[in-house]
Design brief:
This is (rape) hypothetical protein. The structure is a single chain. The protein has about 450 residues and is mostly helical. It folds into three domains: about 50 residues, no CATH class; about 280 residues, no CATH class; about 80 residues, no CATH class. The protein is built from 18 helices and six strands. Helix 2 runs antiparallel to helix 8 and helix 5 crosses helix 13. The protein is globular.
Length: about 450
């Protein structure tokens, strides 16, 4: 029988536990209180941002490739909707983006940012990013990673030489100049350079002086495959990663929220990716913010511009933004994505899980069994292995573990846990530590 083995009973209970929690959570009353904010209301720091993305490059590409087959291809590709962005709202406003970041709530989902303007929360997530940009946001191809690659020998790569040239420190400005002045450039090369400019100069800009990325240069050799890549997902991840507190990492980032607060208090903050998406969402969610743009309203998109530049005007000030926020008529637009927040959850409530007959039967059998403490399920090991365990932990105190149940702990945590009791043998240490870990996960004894 399934329950004849204690290990099977333990594994089954751990698998059942999340559903038990979900069912319990779904029966509770949702609180309408918002999670804590990074900064107290009306106590926001002033600052500016170093925004590496250059949205004006979209206007340049529209201008330099006007009425060409290459631009028709781009227009019909996944990048086409970028040229439908409202031109008046596209010049980057560091103050507005800073205002949204300093008004953010402390929420658990690292890929969703909730910001409160006035009294209502505004959600910035992958779905909204895809809606604004029109970029594909599906899953990455198998084996694809976002890891940074070595670029030191890029100018020796055959694909790089063919498209970029032999110059090592080529910039996006160099590619722009080449695209604008080389009258004999083949159409395919024009298309490839334009796509690199869009990706490295606008969507995934990660340097103050944008440069082409070797990985993308290799990818663009197959233009169709390049345009089917989920650029929305990649750009969004790069964008939001520097907008929210980082993940807790022992000895490296032990106070993520405090670190983010200090970053936002600095005179300037580095923003990579495509932060313009958050700015456009702000204008969309709070239309009154458009009154801070000091030029007459017009409905032109980047596609409608005659020249290679975006409209130029003085950037809105922090005072302008605060005045809009204080205006009782400046209410956010209705948005079905805005939900009541009690635990920082970034998504609407999921449907309640209804246990199947099999789950119900197994649960009844489980509850009919006797209970024993979780440590009793651990098989005893020879003393030599406990001694090895004792030597390894102090030697690698910074080592970090992630258990199957998603509990994160370090060797340093184990040492701190053992120290107050002055346990004399590693065997006793391990059992006490294990029991503490299981208590943290379950808060009750395991049923067997």
């Amino acid at each position: 029988m399934f329950f004849s083995n204690p290990e099977n009973r333990f594994v089954f209970f751990l698998n059942l536990f999340p559903r038990f929690i979900q069912a319990t959570t779904n029966r509770t009353t949702v609180s309408h209180r918002l999670p804590p904010r990074l900064f107290a209301t009306d106590r926001f720091p002033s600052g500016r941002h170093n925004i590496y993305s250059k949205p004006e490059l979209l206007a340049f590409i529209r201008h330099v490739l006007r009425d060409t087959e290459e631009f028709k291809y781009i227009r019909s590709s996944c990048f086409g909707k970028l040229f439908d962005l409202p031109a008046r709202q596209c010049p980057s406003s560091g103050k507005l983006i800073h205002a949204m970041l300093t008004r953010q709530l402390v929420c658990g989902d690292k890929h969703t940012l909730w910001s409160v303007f006035g009294s209502d929360p505004i959600k910035f997530g992958l779905q909204k990013f895809g809606t604004i940009t029109g970029l594909p946001c599906g899953a990455f191809p198998v084996g694809y990673t976002l890891d940074k690659e070595d670029q030191s020998t890029a100018n020796k790569d055959s694909d790089w030489i063919k498209l970029i040239g032999k110059k090592r420190f080529t910039t996006i400005a160099d590619l722009r100049h080449k695209l604008e002045t080389d009258r004999h450039m083949p159409g395919r090369k024009k298309l490839q350079l334009a796509l690199i400019i869009i990706v490295d100069g606008v969507l995934i800009a990660h340097q103050q002086t944008p440069r082409p990325t070797l990985k993308y240069v290799r990818m663009v050799q197959d233009v169709d495959a390049f345009c089917s890549h989920p650029w929305g997902r990649e750009s969004f991840i790069k964008t939001i990663d520097c907008m929210k507190p980082q993940k807790f990492v022992p000895l490296k980032c032990e106070d993520p929220i405090g670190a983010m607060v200090q970053l936002l208090k600095q005179e300037s903050l580095r923003l990579i990716g495509f932060p313009l998406a958050l700015q456009l969402l702000s204008y969309q969610a709070v239309p009154k913010l458009q009154s801070t743009v000091p030029i007459p309203y017009d409905s032109r998109t980047i596609m409608d511009l005659d020249g290679p530049n975006l409209p130029f005007y003085p950037a809105p000030s922090a005072i302008d933004i605060i005045r809009v926020e204080a205006d009782p008529d400046a209410q956010p637009t209705d948005d079905s994505d805005i939900v009541s927040l009690s635990d920082g959850s970034p998504v609407p409530e999921t449907p309640k899980h209804i246990p199947s007959m099999e789950e119900d039967h197994l649960a009844k059998q489980l509850l009919g069994c006797k209970t024993v403490p979780a440590p009793d399920l651990l098989s005893p090991l020879p003393q030599i292995e406990w001694d090895l365990f004792e030597k390894i932990i102090p030697k690698f105190s910074a080592a970090f573990h992630i258990t199957p149940s998603k509990l994160d702990f370090s060797n340093n945590f184990l040492l701190q846990l053992a120290r107050p009791m002055n346990w004399t043998t590693t065997y006793v240490q391990f059992h006490h530590i294990s029991f503490h870990i299981y208590e943290m996960q379950l808060t009750f004894t395991v049923v067997t």
